[in-house]
Write a structure and sequence with these properties.
- By secondary structure, the protein is of the alpha/beta class.
- It is built from 15 helices and eleven strands.
- Strands 1, 2, 3, 4, 5, 6, 7, 8 and 11 form a nine-stranded mixed β-sheet that branches.
- A hairpin with an 8-residue loop joins strand 6 and strand 7.
- InterPro entries: Emycin_Estase, Hydrolase/PRTase-associated, UCP036794_erythomycin.
- This is Protein-L-isoaspartate O-methyltransferase.
Length: about 425
């Protein structure tokens, strides 16, 4: 391939992002990926990119691969809503569900501090939001709905209590619920759907201008989470698709809520934001939010930016719910996308997909590293590389030669170990 088969921009300082900002152009949605959920550089550079998109291109909010109730607490903090808390590290303690380090870390604390300072100089709709797109928070969302509606809407609150009561025999354990519905033709779907309908009919007025949206979003999360957990026990790609469909639906709702000119930044794993049609995920009937956004808004209006590295360290667990550990990430395997970039140069770099069109090796699938919250470096070569057509999966890619682990805030997981229920850990 020669020493430098395609153009790239060396990445050493924030000014070097000019290449990427120019490529983003007038896109309405920018999705920023990560090759792991525990790498400091991915968070730090996504923050740098997000700042410029907010300041220079008027982006309205950041939506992340986190649960709605917890992220909404951060949204309240950065927008300065009453009784939202004042100490960032304290507010980030809301992230108690394993893996806590994904959002309860010092890199996110730095982003939160910047958002708060930026918003302090702005009024109302000019403030930049922070939201969660994920679907796991079934019970947390139900609890929030009941607490709020008991003060505001008795009829809708009763529907929410019925939904919670339906789940009570399962001890708030999604695995118990999912397994029970697999063998007995009874579930809580009708109760959750009725609650969703009741909540959608009511309107609330509080000192939080987003409370109405928040309540209805929690109801949507509960409905889709119930569907997700039922699909999970069947062990097919259906649960993945339920999850990414929910994330896309939430993104749609947020864009609509923020107005016809609204622009969104999305932070998620590469496996979610990189178009699934150009990976082996498509072979199993799976799609993701990156693909759905391109299909809905048009490829010219959605920019997908992948992230990856050659070697370093990462925070992850040996199994689902296991204690977080700082682990070594070995050099990328031979023949992978990451090894190709390493062999070209050891520079950190920005690569635009437009500059890869004439690289024959990249017009077909090539191994591309993906590390989840569950990781064991000894077995990396057997399951941590996603066959990918790089120039089609992404519009741009940020590569780091050596990365270090994210810096978690120290805390205990709520309720101890989570059930080993999740086959997809990205």
């Amino acid at each position: 391939m020669g020493n430098k088969p395609f153009h790239y921009t060396a990445l050493t300082k924030e000014k070097d992002l000019d290449t990427l900002i120019s490529e983003i152009g007038d896109a309405r949605v920018v999705m920023l990926g990560e090759a792991s959920h525990g790498t400091s550089e991915y968070y730090t550079w996504r923050t740098a990119i997000s700042k410029r998109l907010v300041q220079e291109k008027g982006f309205n909010f950041i939506a992340v691969e986190g649960d709605w109730p917890e992220c909404y607490a951060v949204n309240r903090l950065v927008k300065g809503y009453p009784n939202a808390g004042s100490k960032i590290a304290d507010v980030l303690q809301v992230y108690r569900r394993w893996p806590t380090w994904m959002w309860a870390n010092w890199e996110v604390a730095a982003l939160t501090e910047w958002l708060r300072e930026y918003n302090n100089q702005r009024n109302g709709k000019e403030k930049v939001g922070f939201y969660g797109l994920d679907v796991y928070s079934l019970w947390e969302s139900l609890d929030q709905i009941v607490r709020f509606l008991e003060r505001n809407d008795g009829q809708a609150a009763e529907a929410a209590r019925l939904a919670i009561n339906c789940f009570e025999p399962f001890n708030r354990d999604p695995q118990t619920y999912a397994q029970a519905t697999a063998f007995v033709p009874t579930d809580c779907e009708s109760e959750v759907v009725e609650m969703l309908q009741k909540v959608q009919q009511q309107r609330t007025f509080t000192d939080d201008p987003e409370q109405d949206f928040n309540t209805k979003q929690n109801a949507l999360v509960a409905a889709n989470a119930e569907k997700y957990y039922r699909a999970m026990v069947r062990g097919s790609s259906e649960s993945w698709n339920v999850r990414d469909s929910h994330m896309m639906e939430t993104l749609d709702r947020l864009l609509e809520f923020h107005g016809p000119e609204a622009k969104a930044i999305v932070w998620e794993h590469n496996t979610h934001i990189g178009d699934a049609r150009y990976t082996d995920m498509a072979d199993d009937g799976m799609f993701n939010i990156g693909q759905l956004a391109r299909e809905k808004y048009g490829r010219e209006n959605v920019k997908l930016v992948g992230f990856g590295s050659y070697q370093g360290t990462v925070i992850a667990g040996r199994s689902w719910g296991a204690p977080m550990q700082k682990m070594d990430v070995p050099p990328a395997v031979e023949g992978s996308w990451e090894e190709m970039l390493h062999n070209i140069s050891t520079d950190d770099k920005i690569i635009l997909s437009a500059d890869l069109k004439n690289v024959p090796e990249l017009q077909q699938r090539i191994g591309h590293r993906a590390i989840g919250v569950v990781y064991d470096p000894k077995y990396e070569m057997f399951g941590n590389y996603v066959p990918t057509v790089i120039p089609e999966r992404y519009d741009a890619f940020l590569y780091f030669e050596e990365t270090e682990a994210v810096h978690p805030l120290r805390m205990k997981n709520r309720g101890g170990k989570e059930p080993d229920l999740y086959p997809w850990n990205y």
